[in-house]
# Entry
Amino acid sequence: MPSVPFTILDETRPLTVTATVDGDAVRLAPPVLEAALGWSVKPEGLCRGAVCVPTRSRPDLVTAEGVDLAGAAALLGRPLALDVEAGAAALGASAAERARRLASLEAPDFTLADLDGRIHSLADHRGKKVLLLAYASW
# Structure
């Protein structure tokens, strides 16, 4: 199977990697997985620093073609939206990470332009009360 360019949106950070695509399965070579997401394949499992997640219960996770992206996401508890035809995937934060962020009661920073083109960042208003209004047509 040939390697193809594949885009992974890791929360908010877009990454372009080479992947092997076979049907609905997307596989990353172990060095690509480590460079992109920081997880390395070791005998004890998927590891990042001193933290390792055992993979013994998932023998199909790591094969000669690489590490299954959907399997790795499930093992790490991270939601994954995968569109093989578009060559893209969005990898969200784990439930534990989302809970930690919610418990902090601090909104993530973002920057948007207003109707006049002026740029506004939420960080510019830290420590102040801010009312955010959002509208969607759906």
In short: The helical segments are 30-37, 69-76, 95-104. Residues 27 and 65 are 6 Å apart (CA to CA). DSSP finds three helices and twelve strands in the chain.
